[in-house]
Amino acid sequence: MIIVEDGNMRLPFSRGILTRSITSAGVDVGVAYSIAAEVMKDLQKKKKRIVSKDEIRETTYRKLLEHGYKTAARRYIFWSEIRRKGIPMMLLLGGTTGVGKSTIATELAFRMGIRSVIGTDTIREVMRKMISKELLPTIHASSFLAWKAINAPLKGISPLIYGFERQVSHVAVGINALIERATKEGFNAILEGIHLVPGYISLTDMSFMYIITVESKEALRARFYARGLQSLRPANYYTDHLDEIMGLQEFIVERAREKGVPIIENIEVDKTVNLIMEDLMKRLSERLKQKGIRIEVVE
Ligand SMILES: Nc1ncnc2c1ncn2[C@@H]1O[C@H](COP(=O)(O)OP(=O)(O)OP(=O)(O)O)[C@@H](O)[C@H]1O
Ligand SMILES: O=C(O)[C@@H](CO)OP(=O)(O)O
Fold first, then answer.
1. According to its UniProt record, which reaction does this protein catalyse (predicted)?
2. Distance 238 CA to ligand 2 centre (A)
3. Residue 187, SS3 per DSSP
4. In the chain, which ranges are E strands?
5. Ligand 2 pocket: which of 121, 231, 233, 246 to mutate (most atoms within 8 A of CB)
6. What is the pLDDT of residues 217-230, one digit of tens each?
7. Which ligand 1 atom sits closest to the C-alpha of 119?
8. How many Å lie between the centroid of ligand 1 and the Cα of residue 13?
9. Is there an atom of ligand 2 within 6 Å of 249 CB?
10. Which is the closest atom of ligand 1 to the Cα of 266?
Protein backbone atom coordinates (compact mmCIF):
# COMPACT_ATOMS: atom_id res chain seq x y z
CA MET A 1 0.00 0.00 0.00
CA ILE A 2 1.24 3.51 -0.84
CA ILE A 3 1.00 6.09 1.91
CA VAL A 4 0.51 9.75 1.07
CA GLU A 5 2.20 12.25 3.31
CA ASP A 6 0.64 15.68 3.67
CA GLY A 7 2.17 17.78 6.41
CA ASN A 8 1.58 15.84 9.60
CA MET A 9 -1.04 13.62 8.04
CA ARG A 10 -0.56 10.20 6.46
CA LEU A 11 -3.32 8.61 4.42
CA PRO A 12 -3.52 5.59 2.10
CA PHE A 13 -3.27 6.51 -1.59
CA SER A 14 -6.77 6.62 -3.09
CA ARG A 15 -7.32 6.28 -6.82
CA GLY A 16 -10.83 7.66 -6.29
CA ILE A 17 -9.58 10.88 -4.72
CA LEU A 18 -7.00 11.38 -7.46
CA THR A 19 -9.63 10.66 -10.13
CA ARG A 20 -11.81 13.36 -8.62
CA SER A 21 -9.07 15.98 -8.66
CA ILE A 22 -8.20 15.12 -12.25
CA THR A 23 -11.84 15.71 -13.24
CA SER A 24 -11.46 19.28 -11.90
CA ALA A 25 -9.40 19.88 -15.05
CA GLY A 26 -12.42 19.05 -17.20
CA VAL A 27 -11.21 15.56 -18.08
CA ASP A 28 -13.86 12.88 -18.54
CA VAL A 29 -14.21 10.69 -15.44
CA GLY A 30 -13.24 7.51 -17.36
CA VAL A 31 -10.00 9.09 -18.65
CA ALA A 32 -9.32 10.55 -15.19
CA TYR A 33 -9.67 7.10 -13.67
CA SER A 34 -7.22 5.49 -16.08
CA ILE A 35 -4.71 8.30 -15.57
CA ALA A 36 -5.04 7.90 -11.81
CA ALA A 37 -4.37 4.17 -12.27
CA GLU A 38 -1.24 4.92 -14.31
CA VAL A 39 -0.02 7.35 -11.67
CA MET A 40 -0.49 4.65 -9.07
CA LYS A 41 1.52 2.16 -11.17
CA ASP A 42 4.33 4.69 -11.62
CA LEU A 43 4.48 5.30 -7.90
CA GLN A 44 4.47 1.55 -7.21
CA LYS A 45 7.38 1.09 -9.63
CA LYS A 46 9.44 3.51 -7.58
CA LYS A 47 9.02 1.07 -4.68
CA LYS A 48 8.57 3.91 -2.23
CA ARG A 49 6.13 3.28 0.57
CA ILE A 50 5.61 6.93 1.38
CA VAL A 51 5.05 9.59 -1.26
CA SER A 52 4.36 13.31 -0.90
CA LYS A 53 1.39 15.12 -2.39
CA ASP A 54 3.80 17.12 -4.55
CA GLU A 55 5.13 13.89 -6.03
CA ILE A 56 1.59 12.79 -6.90
CA ARG A 57 0.86 16.19 -8.40
CA GLU A 58 3.98 16.14 -10.56
CA THR A 59 3.41 12.56 -11.75
CA THR A 60 -0.21 13.35 -12.63
CA TYR A 61 0.77 16.53 -14.46
CA ARG A 62 3.35 14.58 -16.48
CA LYS A 63 0.87 11.78 -17.28
CA LEU A 64 -1.71 14.29 -18.52
CA LEU A 65 0.92 15.84 -20.81
CA GLU A 66 2.03 12.41 -22.05
CA HIS A 67 -1.56 11.70 -23.09
CA GLY A 68 -1.80 15.01 -24.92
CA TYR A 69 -4.01 16.79 -22.37
CA LYS A 70 -1.97 19.98 -22.30
CA THR A 71 -4.72 22.39 -21.28
CA ALA A 72 -6.13 19.94 -18.77
CA ALA A 73 -2.67 19.53 -17.24
CA ARG A 74 -2.43 23.26 -16.61
CA ARG A 75 -5.97 23.38 -15.21
CA TYR A 76 -5.21 20.43 -12.97
CA ILE A 77 -2.25 22.29 -11.48
CA PHE A 78 -4.37 25.42 -11.06
CA TRP A 79 -7.08 23.65 -9.06
CA SER A 80 -4.61 21.68 -6.98
CA GLU A 81 -2.83 24.92 -6.12
CA ILE A 82 -6.15 26.43 -5.05
CA ARG A 83 -6.81 23.41 -2.81
CA ARG A 84 -3.25 23.32 -1.51
CA LYS A 85 -3.28 26.97 -0.54
CA GLY A 86 -6.68 26.43 1.11
CA ILE A 87 -8.12 29.47 -0.64
CA PRO A 88 -11.65 29.95 0.66
CA MET A 89 -14.34 30.74 -1.86
CA MET A 90 -18.05 30.52 -2.38
CA LEU A 91 -19.80 29.60 -5.53
CA LEU A 92 -23.39 30.73 -5.94
CA LEU A 93 -25.70 29.21 -8.54
CA GLY A 94 -29.01 30.91 -9.17
CA GLY A 95 -31.74 30.40 -11.76
CA THR A 96 -35.41 29.55 -11.92
CA THR A 97 -36.79 26.29 -10.57
CA GLY A 98 -35.89 23.12 -12.49
CA VAL A 99 -33.01 24.45 -14.62
CA GLY A 100 -30.54 22.02 -13.04
CA LYS A 101 -28.88 24.05 -10.29
CA SER A 102 -28.60 21.30 -7.71
CA THR A 103 -27.42 18.76 -10.30
CA ILE A 104 -24.67 21.16 -11.42
CA ALA A 105 -23.79 22.13 -7.84
CA THR A 106 -23.28 18.48 -6.88
CA GLU A 107 -21.05 17.85 -9.91
CA LEU A 108 -19.00 21.00 -9.25
CA ALA A 109 -18.61 20.07 -5.59
CA PHE A 110 -17.34 16.63 -6.61
CA ARG A 111 -14.82 18.00 -9.09
CA MET A 112 -13.62 20.81 -6.85
CA GLY A 113 -13.53 18.73 -3.70
CA ILE A 114 -15.97 21.05 -1.92
CA ARG A 115 -17.84 19.28 0.86
CA SER A 116 -20.64 21.71 1.45
CA VAL A 117 -23.54 22.23 -0.93
CA ILE A 118 -26.35 24.27 0.57
CA GLY A 119 -29.72 24.80 -1.09
CA THR A 120 -31.56 28.02 -0.38
CA ASP A 121 -34.75 25.94 -0.16
CA THR A 122 -33.31 24.55 3.07
CA ILE A 123 -32.84 28.05 4.45
CA ARG A 124 -36.40 28.87 3.44
CA GLU A 125 -37.60 25.67 5.15
CA VAL A 126 -35.92 26.65 8.43
CA MET A 127 -37.47 30.12 8.18
CA ARG A 128 -40.89 28.53 7.62
CA LYS A 129 -40.59 26.70 10.92
CA MET A 130 -39.56 29.83 12.75
CA ILE A 131 -41.78 32.48 11.20
CA SER A 132 -45.49 31.84 10.82
CA LYS A 133 -47.51 32.09 7.64
CA GLU A 134 -49.39 35.02 9.17
CA LEU A 135 -46.18 36.99 9.66
CA LEU A 136 -44.38 36.18 6.39
CA PRO A 137 -46.88 34.62 3.99
CA THR A 138 -44.66 34.62 0.88
CA ILE A 139 -41.99 32.30 2.27
CA HIS A 140 -44.62 29.61 2.86
CA ALA A 141 -45.31 29.18 -0.85
CA SER A 142 -43.34 28.04 -3.87
CA SER A 143 -41.48 30.87 -5.61
CA PHE A 144 -43.94 30.98 -8.50
CA LEU A 145 -46.98 30.96 -6.21
CA ALA A 146 -45.77 33.49 -3.63
CA TRP A 147 -47.84 36.19 -5.33
CA LYS A 148 -51.03 34.41 -4.31
CA ALA A 149 -50.13 34.81 -0.64
CA ILE A 150 -50.21 38.61 -0.65
CA ASN A 151 -51.91 41.52 -2.32
CA ALA A 152 -49.62 43.07 -4.89
CA PRO A 153 -49.90 46.80 -5.59
CA LEU A 154 -52.40 47.35 -8.37
CA LYS A 155 -49.99 49.14 -10.68
CA GLY A 156 -46.34 49.18 -11.66
CA ILE A 157 -45.23 45.60 -11.07
CA SER A 158 -46.51 42.18 -12.07
CA PRO A 159 -47.98 40.29 -9.10
CA LEU A 160 -45.78 37.26 -9.97
CA ILE A 161 -42.59 39.32 -9.66
CA TYR A 162 -43.84 41.21 -6.62
CA GLY A 163 -44.52 37.97 -4.71
CA PHE A 164 -41.22 36.44 -5.78
CA GLU A 165 -39.26 39.56 -4.81
CA ARG A 166 -40.86 39.51 -1.36
CA GLN A 167 -39.87 35.86 -0.87
CA VAL A 168 -36.35 36.47 -2.17
CA SER A 169 -35.74 39.45 0.06
CA HIS A 170 -36.79 37.47 3.15
CA VAL A 171 -34.75 34.37 2.30
CA ALA A 172 -31.81 36.62 1.39
CA VAL A 173 -31.51 37.54 5.09
CA GLY A 174 -30.65 33.92 5.89
CA ILE A 175 -28.42 33.56 2.81
CA ASN A 176 -26.45 36.70 3.67
CA ALA A 177 -25.96 35.46 7.24
CA LEU A 178 -24.61 32.19 5.88
CA ILE A 179 -22.21 33.95 3.51
CA GLU A 180 -21.00 36.15 6.36
CA ARG A 181 -20.37 33.15 8.60
CA ALA A 182 -18.61 31.17 5.86
CA THR A 183 -16.40 34.15 5.09
CA LYS A 184 -15.52 34.58 8.76
CA GLU A 185 -14.63 30.89 9.11
CA GLY A 186 -12.95 30.68 5.71
CA PHE A 187 -14.78 27.60 4.50
CA ASN A 188 -15.60 26.64 0.94
CA ALA A 189 -19.18 26.10 -0.06
CA ILE A 190 -21.50 26.00 -3.00
CA LEU A 191 -24.86 27.68 -2.55
CA GLU A 192 -27.62 26.97 -5.00
CA GLY A 193 -31.20 28.07 -5.31
CA ILE A 194 -33.79 30.26 -6.92
CA HIS A 195 -33.29 32.88 -4.19
CA LEU A 196 -29.79 33.73 -5.36
CA VAL A 197 -30.92 36.73 -7.38
CA PRO A 198 -28.27 39.31 -8.30
CA GLY A 199 -28.84 42.51 -6.38
CA TYR A 200 -30.39 40.80 -3.34
CA ILE A 201 -27.29 38.96 -2.16
CA SER A 202 -24.25 40.53 -0.54
CA LEU A 203 -21.29 39.09 -2.38
CA THR A 204 -17.84 39.07 -0.84
CA ASP A 205 -14.67 39.45 -2.89
CA MET A 206 -14.25 35.66 -2.89
CA SER A 207 -17.78 34.73 -3.87
CA PHE A 208 -18.63 34.04 -7.47
CA MET A 209 -22.14 33.95 -8.83
CA TYR A 210 -23.60 32.34 -11.93
CA ILE A 211 -27.15 32.29 -13.26
CA ILE A 212 -28.21 29.04 -14.89
CA THR A 213 -30.91 29.13 -17.55
CA VAL A 214 -32.91 26.74 -19.66
CA GLU A 215 -33.40 27.42 -23.35
CA SER A 216 -37.15 26.87 -23.62
CA LYS A 217 -40.37 26.02 -21.86
CA GLU A 218 -40.36 22.61 -23.53
CA ALA A 219 -36.84 21.77 -22.30
CA LEU A 220 -37.93 22.76 -18.81
CA ARG A 221 -41.05 20.61 -19.03
CA ALA A 222 -38.83 17.59 -19.91
CA ARG A 223 -36.63 18.29 -16.87
CA PHE A 224 -39.59 18.30 -14.53
CA TYR A 225 -40.72 14.97 -15.93
CA ALA A 226 -37.21 13.56 -15.50
CA ARG A 227 -37.08 14.83 -11.93
CA GLY A 228 -40.53 13.44 -11.19
CA LEU A 229 -39.16 9.98 -11.97
CA GLN A 230 -36.16 10.33 -9.64
CA SER A 231 -37.67 12.21 -6.73
CA LEU A 232 -40.84 12.81 -4.80
CA ARG A 233 -41.38 16.22 -6.39
CA PRO A 234 -44.32 15.58 -8.74
CA ALA A 235 -43.78 16.87 -12.29
CA ASN A 236 -47.34 18.18 -12.70
CA TYR A 237 -47.06 20.61 -9.82
CA TYR A 238 -44.36 22.43 -11.82
CA THR A 239 -45.51 21.79 -15.41
CA ASP A 240 -48.88 23.37 -14.50
CA HIS A 241 -46.99 26.63 -13.84
CA LEU A 242 -44.44 26.72 -16.66
CA ASP A 243 -45.34 30.25 -17.78
CA GLU A 244 -44.83 31.64 -14.29
CA ILE A 245 -41.56 29.72 -13.88
CA MET A 246 -40.27 31.05 -17.22
CA GLY A 247 -41.44 34.52 -16.12
CA LEU A 248 -39.20 34.23 -13.07
CA GLN A 249 -36.30 33.19 -15.32
CA GLU A 250 -36.81 36.38 -17.36
CA PHE A 251 -36.72 38.49 -14.20
CA ILE A 252 -33.60 36.75 -12.82
CA VAL A 253 -31.79 37.08 -16.16
CA GLU A 254 -32.58 40.80 -16.30
CA ARG A 255 -31.13 41.28 -12.81
CA ALA A 256 -28.05 39.28 -13.83
CA ARG A 257 -27.50 41.45 -16.92
CA GLU A 258 -27.86 44.58 -14.82
CA LYS A 259 -25.29 43.37 -12.30
CA GLY A 260 -22.90 41.77 -14.78
CA VAL A 261 -23.38 38.24 -13.42
CA PRO A 262 -22.51 35.52 -16.00
CA ILE A 263 -25.52 33.70 -17.45
CA ILE A 264 -24.96 30.09 -18.48
CA GLU A 265 -27.46 28.11 -20.53
CA ASN A 266 -27.61 24.57 -19.22
CA ILE A 267 -27.93 22.28 -22.23
CA GLU A 268 -25.63 19.41 -21.25
CA VAL A 269 -24.61 19.11 -17.61
CA ASP A 270 -21.00 18.25 -18.41
CA LYS A 271 -20.56 21.21 -20.73
CA THR A 272 -22.23 23.55 -18.23
CA VAL A 273 -19.91 22.37 -15.47
CA ASN A 274 -16.85 22.81 -17.72
CA LEU A 275 -17.97 26.30 -18.75
CA ILE A 276 -18.39 27.35 -15.13
CA MET A 277 -15.03 25.91 -14.10
CA GLU A 278 -13.32 27.60 -17.02
CA ASP A 279 -14.84 30.98 -16.25
CA LEU A 280 -14.28 30.56 -12.52
CA MET A 281 -10.62 29.84 -13.13
CA LYS A 282 -10.25 33.16 -14.95
CA ARG A 283 -12.24 35.15 -12.39
CA LEU A 284 -10.48 33.49 -9.50
CA SER A 285 -6.97 34.06 -10.81
CA GLU A 286 -7.82 37.70 -11.56
CA ARG A 287 -9.15 38.18 -8.02
CA LEU A 288 -6.13 36.47 -6.49
CA LYS A 289 -3.78 38.61 -8.55
CA GLN A 290 -5.48 41.70 -7.13
CA LYS A 291 -4.90 40.30 -3.64
CA GLY A 292 -1.25 39.64 -4.43
CA ILE A 293 -1.63 35.84 -4.34
CA ARG A 294 0.21 34.07 -7.13
CA ILE A 295 -1.04 30.82 -8.56
CA GLU A 296 1.74 29.16 -10.48
CA VAL A 297 0.09 27.82 -13.58
CA VAL A 298 -2.66 29.82 -15.21
CA GLU A 299 -3.50 29.89 -18.92
N1 LIG B 1 -28.60 19.76 -18.90
C2 LIG B 1 -29.58 18.93 -18.54
N3 LIG B 1 -30.16 18.15 -19.46
C4 LIG B 1 -31.15 17.32 -19.11
N5 LIG B 1 -31.63 17.18 -17.86
C6 LIG B 1 -31.09 17.94 -16.91
C7 LIG B 1 -30.03 18.86 -17.18
N8 LIG B 1 -29.68 19.47 -16.03
C9 LIG B 1 -30.49 18.96 -15.08
N10 LIG B 1 -31.32 18.03 -15.60
C11 LIG B 1 -32.37 17.28 -14.90
O12 LIG B 1 -33.43 18.21 -14.67
C13 LIG B 1 -34.08 17.95 -13.42
C14 LIG B 1 -34.10 19.23 -12.59
O15 LIG B 1 -32.78 19.51 -12.14
P16 LIG B 1 -32.47 20.04 -10.64
O17 LIG B 1 -33.35 19.36 -9.65
O18 LIG B 1 -31.00 19.98 -10.49
O19 LIG B 1 -32.97 21.55 -10.82
P20 LIG B 1 -32.91 22.78 -9.82
O21 LIG B 1 -32.59 23.96 -10.66
O22 LIG B 1 -32.02 22.49 -8.68
O23 LIG B 1 -34.42 22.90 -9.35
P24 LIG B 1 -35.07 23.52 -8.01
O25 LIG B 1 -34.74 24.98 -7.97
O26 LIG B 1 -36.54 23.33 -8.24
O27 LIG B 1 -34.56 22.75 -6.85
C28 LIG B 1 -33.30 16.79 -12.79
O29 LIG B 1 -34.00 15.58 -13.03
C30 LIG B 1 -31.96 16.79 -13.52
O31 LIG B 1 -31.39 15.50 -13.58
O1 LIG C 1 -40.07 27.58 -4.72
C2 LIG C 1 -39.76 26.91 -5.71
O3 LIG C 1 -39.98 27.26 -6.87
C4 LIG C 1 -38.98 25.62 -5.55
C5 LIG C 1 -37.50 25.95 -5.67
O6 LIG C 1 -36.72 24.78 -5.55
O7 LIG C 1 -39.23 25.02 -4.31
P8 LIG C 1 -40.49 24.05 -4.03
O9 LIG C 1 -40.43 23.00 -5.05
O10 LIG C 1 -40.29 23.54 -2.63
O11 LIG C 1 -41.71 24.87 -4.12
1. (2R)-2-phosphoglycerate + ATP = (2R)-2,3-bisphosphoglycerate + ADP + H(+)
2. 9
3. coil
4. 3-6, 9-12, 50-52, 90-94, 117-119, 189-192, 207-213, 263-265
5. 121
6. 999 999 999 999 99
7. 27
8. 34
9. no
10. 1
Distance 121 CA to ligand 2 centre (A): 7
Reported for 169-176, long-range contacts at CB under 8 A and 24+ positions apart, including other chains, are 169/200, 170/127, 170/136, 170/138, 170/139, 171/120, 171/123, 171/124, 171/127, 171/139, 171/195, 172/197, 172/200, 172/201, 174/120, 174/123, 174/124, 174/126, 174/127, 175/120, 175/123, 175/201, 176/201, 176/202
61 touches ligand 2 (CB under 6 Å): no
Complex ipTM, two decimals?
0.88
Q: Is the CB of 213 under 6 A from ligand 1?
A: no
Closest residue to atom 6 of ligand 2, CA basis? 97
Q: Are 86 and 39 in contact (CB under 8 A)?
A: no
Query: Quick check: 22 and 32 in contact, CB under 8 A?
Result: yes
pLDDT digit string, tens, across residues 207-265: 999 999 999 999 999 999 999 999 999 999 999 999 999 999 999 999 999 999 999 99
- The residues near 201 (Cβ < 8 Å, ≥ 6 apart) are 92, 172, 175, 176, 179, 209
What separation in Å is there between the alpha carbon of 282 and the centre of ligand 1? 26
Q: What single letter denotes the amino acid at residue 26?
A: G
What pTM does this model have?
A: 0.92
Which atom of ligand 1 approaches the CA of 104 most closely? 18
Residue 68 CA: distances (Å) to CA of 34, 72, 77, 196, 281:
14, 9, 15, 39, 21
Residue 9 pLDDT > 90, yes or no? no
Q: What's the gap in Å between 255 CA and the centre of ligand 1?
A: 22
